[in-house]
Amino acid sequence: MEKIAFIGGGNMALTIIGGLVARGWEPRRITVVDPNARQRDGLAREHGVHTTDDAADAVAADIIVLAVKPQAIAAVAKQIDDDLSGKLIISIAAGVTIESLADLFGPVAIARTMPNTPALLGLGATGLFVNEYVSEAQRVMARAIIEAFGICVTVDREELLDAITAVSGSGPAYYFLMIEEMIRAGTALGLSPEDAKALTLQTALGAATMASQGDAPEDLRGRVTSPNGTTHAAIEALQENGFGAVIAKAMTACRNRAVELGLD
Hints:
By secondary structure, the protein is α/β, with parallel strands linked by helices. The protein has helices spanning about 10-20, 35-45, 75-80, 100-105, 135-145, 160-170, 170-190, 195-210, 215-225, 230-240, 245-264; strands at about 5, 30-35, 50, 65, 90, 110-115, 125-130, 150-155. Helix 5 links the parallel strand 7 and strand 8.
């Protein structure tokens, strides 16, 4: 089994490590580099992994996961000045392109990912793009690591990661906003805030679960939308007020901003 090193021991690293260990990855083959002694001690106690404050120790691993903030990657590259040939670098840093990573680490195997916050619950939806130096075995390994905390969608063009940002990277916030507004509207219609929240959350969970079973969303919607019924009135009001166009506009704005950040 390959050795893997995480540079950065924050929430996302903790999530991935937990998923890997649960899937049988041996803790002794996992190293976490983090400057915070308390963070290192917690990881060592919880998962039995090796911890260190020296990024140079990561070079001994077959896979190096960059789990630090984008602005810290250049400093990390200076600490890892060994030959990285044959190793796989996986970056979860938002907005840092493959080209930028290659400038820092050289012409090596690099996988760029775009996880989202539900990964913290093992329910992530993550995009993956790999460069031409990634072997088939490394690509399979990158997917396996990502699937330890959710689903993985591989794209063949790096710019599609910006579209993934618009769909799943920022997507949880769209649903949170919808939940907020439904609770607010339910309260305005006379429900207590507590009841409005409970009903809204359970409805969102139920709808997502039903949609994940395989039936097309439009078919599911059709089954609960009787002609001239209550649901029909609600759906008609949403559509008449440009619900679909608003969603499309929001996601396009998100994608465009992701492109801008990637060029900064």
